[in-house]
Design goal:
By secondary structure, the chain is an alpha/beta fold. The chain has two domains: 234 residues, TIM Barrel; 29 residues, no CATH class. Helix content is 39%, strand content 13%. The protein contains eleven helices and eight strands.
Length: 272
């Protein structure tokens, strides 16, 4: 594994070289340390913590204080990976000044090295304003979880169908708007793979796919999904690489059994 700190220009260099970018979400010190030691390129402290850590139904309740807290935990691992912090709902939609101040807070208080915003054409001016004060911005288009109510759920965006006339064209416009506003990369979520490939070929900045097929410049997954820690539901685009829920459940069950049967602790676990 390389020891050089990953930076925004390094992610852009990876696209130019054709090397795939790897990313996962992280919300605390232990997992940030483990993921970083494996060589992940960037860690997203995502507002997905609302559903994965806090038990909410959506990401909407997540606050700036929540984001700052979890960013600090991840930062304590001093990762080689770039640390990207999500800007939560209503931290950037209400006005330029609020958006700049909140983005700055994620860097100054949380230790983020870049921020991520959801939206395309509608949010391009906000991206530009944040970039203009030297805060790196990652875009996020397609299925944007903060827009769950407008979209009527977590649905694929940009399909070729009569139900979404002009949807593909709008996503291409969103991708161009985010790029022109100065974003250094863009997440494509819940996008048909042929459209994601078209956008990836079109843009000079890296595309990071989640449910967007194999042709993006990089991939990101929610850590809990990858490790099998999200219950029975698994989105179509997720590959489970482990079943930690079963591992944890087996370990806890064994502990309970041994305590009740006076098998733990033994002399070797005691002080004399």
């Amino acid at each position: 594994m390389q020891s050089t700190k990953i930076s925004v220009p390094e992610l852009q260099r990876l696209k130019a070289s054709g090397q795939k970018i790897t990313a996962l979400t992280a919300y605390d010190y232990p997992f940030a340390r483990i993921l970083d030691e494996c060589g992940i390129d960037f860690l997203l402290v995502g507002d997905s913590l609302g559903t994965t850590v806090q038990g909410a139904d959506t990401t909407l309740p997540v606050t700036m204080d929540d984001m700052v807290y979890h960013l600090r935990l991840v930062g304590r691992a001093r990762p080689r990976a770039l640390i990207v912090g999500d800007m939560p709902f209503l931290s950037y939609q209400a006005g330029i000044c609020d958006a700049i101040a909140n983005a700055g807070r994620l860097l100054k208080e949380g230790g983020a090295e870049a921020v991520k915003l959801e939206g395309g054409v509608n949010i391009a001016r906000v991206i530009k304003a944040i970039v203009n004060v030297d805060i790196p911005v990652m875009g996020h288009i397609g299925l944007t979880p903060q827009s769950v109510h407008r979209m009527g759920g977590y649905k694929v965006q940009g399909k070729k169908s009569g139900r979404q006339p002009g949807a593909r064209e709008r996503l291409i416009e969103d991708a161009e708007a985010v790029t022109n506003a100065g974003a250094f990369a863009v997440v494509l979520e819940g996008v048909p793979m042929d459209l994601a490939a078209e956008i990836t070929d079109m843009l000079p900045i890296p595309t990071i796919g989640i449910g967007a097929g194999p042709h993006c410049d990089g991939q990101i997954l929610v850590m809990h999904d990858l490790l099998g820690m999200s219950g029975d539901f698994t989105p179509k685009f997720v590959k489970r690489y482990a079943n930690l829920e079963r591992v944890v459940a087996d370990a806890v069950s064994a502990y309970i059994s041994e305590v009740r049967e006076h098998a733990f602790p033994q002399d070797e676990h005691s002080f004399h």
